Every structure is written in structure tokens, then in C-alpha cells.
Amino acid sequence: MEKVSIIIPFFNCSYIGLAIESALNQTYQNIEVIVVDDGSTLYNEKVTPYLSRIKYIRKSNGGTASALNFGIENATGDYFAWLSSDDLFHPFKIEKQLHYMKTVNAQASYSNFYLINEHGKIVSSPQGMEFPNQVQFLKRMRRGCVINGCTVMLSMNLCKEIGLFDETLLFTQDYDYWLRILPKFRFYYYSEPLVQYRVHSKMGTKQHRLQARKELLSTTQRHTHIMNELIKRTIQKGI
To answer: Which residues contact 161 (CB under 8 A, 6 or more apart)?
Structure first.
């Protein structure tokens, strides 16, 4: 029975307790929940009730990418799932997504998701984007990220081959990582919503909108040539 490592980067987020609870309440039993405290100075007391059931690692502040990398380096699982400290996993998230990945022999997958507000109320229809074929998916990924990071599950073998997240990126570390994966591995989409993604006023992309847009443009441009070549090869294969 494969082990899944759920990694939760944490920095001054009031929702951390709810995120941990959703990770611990998975129907799939063989999990480890790793909370990487990225130098947080607020809401640490919300982690305390769970310390006996999680792996808690504290480090100096370095951003989301560094926290994810620290978690991956300390993980013992066969698969890796990322949960932001303000989001929630559906109780069946790990069980259903892992079963799907094993069924289609996937090393990388992402799923559908809902938006929730600051009070945890679902405020949207399912937000995931499904594409008719790989070419359309790759063309859309060339323009911007359509994969919600907290819906992603990756095999640790893939992570070892691709490497770690780019710690110089503050907002697009996930998009950059998916683009590095795509030339070597196919991303499979699971259509059932398995994550609740919280939209609130303190989100980093909202507070630093201009900086995030500049970084997105830079990341997109850096991968354009590789994505163009990948799209050509995929068209030739007829996928």
C-alpha cells in the first residue's frame, strides 16, 4: 500500500488548522502529513493540537517553493500531494486520485476543484479545465497555468527526476514546475472536484498582483520554445 506525503507550507495563515484537519481526515490511511512552518510568527497555536499526528518542521522564511522543497526532502512517501494552508482536501481526495493514477499508470495528475470564500462556503461550480486532447491542453498551458497546485499528485520518482521547485520564483513556482514536467511526463486529469480552493483578501497573488503578472510573463516566455517543440511532437503522435 503506497504512502502519500501531504505537504502543507505554513506562513501566518489563520486557516492552517482547517487545512491540517482536512489532510488528517482522509479515507486513505497510509499518509503522512508534513507541515513546513516557513518562519511563521502568527497562528502557530492552531498547529499545536495536531503535533502528535503530523510531522512538523520549522525553518527560516524562504517562500512557498523553499517550504515545498523542504517538505519533499523530508518526505518518506511514494507520492506527493501539496495542500496550501488556506485550502481543503475532500475526505476522498487521496484515495480517489491515487486509485485513478494507478488505473491509468500516471506519474502526474491534477483534479477538478471548487472555490470557497473566507467562511468556507462553496461559491462556484467546478472550476477545473478539461481538454479534448493533449494538444489543446499543451497549447493552453503554453499561455498560462490551468492546473491548480493543490489538486496535483505526483510520484516521488517523478520528483527525483525533475528536481525541486525553483526557489527564486515567488508566484509561479508551481507553473514553472508543471512546465518542466510536461516534456517528460503526461499530466492526467481527474474530473471529480477533490479540493476546495479558498479565495480571500490576503492571498499573495491578490496582494502582489503586478509582481505576479510580471513573473508569469517571464516564466511563460522562458518555456515557450520547449513547449512549442513539445506541441509539435504531440501533434505528430496524434495524441
So the answer is: 184
Identify the residue whose cell numbers are 478539461.
130
pLDDT digits (tens, 9 = 90+) for 202-227: 665 566 789 999 999 999 999 999 99
Q: Are strands 31-38 and 55-59 parallel, antiparallel or unpaired?
A: parallel
Q: Nearest Cα to 109, choosing from 175, 154, 161?
A: 154
CB 124 within 8 A of CB 197: no
Burial (0-12, 13-18, 19+ Cβ within 10 Å), 236 = exposed
Q: What is the CATH number of domain 4-130+146-201?
A: 3.90.550.10
CB hemisphere CA count around 12 (13 angstroms): 8
3-class DSSP state for residue 110? Answer: strand
The count of other CB atoms within 10 Å of the CB of residue 167 is 15
Domain ranges of the chain: 4-130+146-201
Task: Return d(Cα 79, Cα 140) in angstroms, integer.
Answer: 26
Q: Find the helix or strand (DSSP H, E) in which 204 lies.
A: helix 204-207
Does the pTM of the predicted model rise above 0.85? yes
In this structure, what is the dihedral angle of CA atoms 215, 217, 220, 223, given to the nearest 10 degrees?
-80
Write the CA distances from 15 to 114, 119, 146, 203, integer angstroms: 17, 10, 24, 12
114 CB burial (10 A radius; 0-12, 13-18, 19+): buried
